[in-house]
Specification:
The chain is elongated. It is mostly helical and 116 residues long. It contains three helices and no strands. The relative contact order is 0.03.
């Protein structure tokens, strides 16, 4: 029973392939010679196309690299400024706490609590 099913499947595949080949030959827009010439011209143009694509990718990579470096410099500058401002605020708060502790006063609540 299995060999009968697989035999009909293979027969259907062969008939389908034959019908596809005939339809392809009848519906082809060009003759075989013209199609081969077109394929040869396309194959000859591939190296130039690959070189153009390579150049384009290289230009895009260079632009991306320059933009990333420019943005990185700006980000690094802002980060340094933020760290410096944080250190200054910490030192001011520490000095304020030291003065209040030395004078015997109860220290004020932290800055974040005073800002509320």
């Amino acid at each position: 029973m299995m060999s009968n099913r697989s035999g009909s499947f293979l027969g259907g595949m062969i008939v389908g392939a034959a019908m596809g080949t005939i339809a392809g030959l009848l519906m082809a827009p060009r003759t075989g010679r013209e199609t081969r010439q077109l394929i040869k011209k396309s194959a000859d143009a591939l190296p130039e196309l690959a070189e153009d694509l390579s150049t384009s990718v290289q230009l895009q990579a260079d632009r991306f690299s320059e933009t990333a470096l420019r943005n990185w410099d700006g980000t690094l500058t802002r980060l340094k400024e933020a760290i410096s401002a944080g250190l200054e605020a910490t030192q001011r708060e520490h000095q304020l706490l030291d003065r209040e502790t030395e004078s015997g006063n109860e220290p004020n609540p932290p800055v974040r609590d005073r800002l509320r």
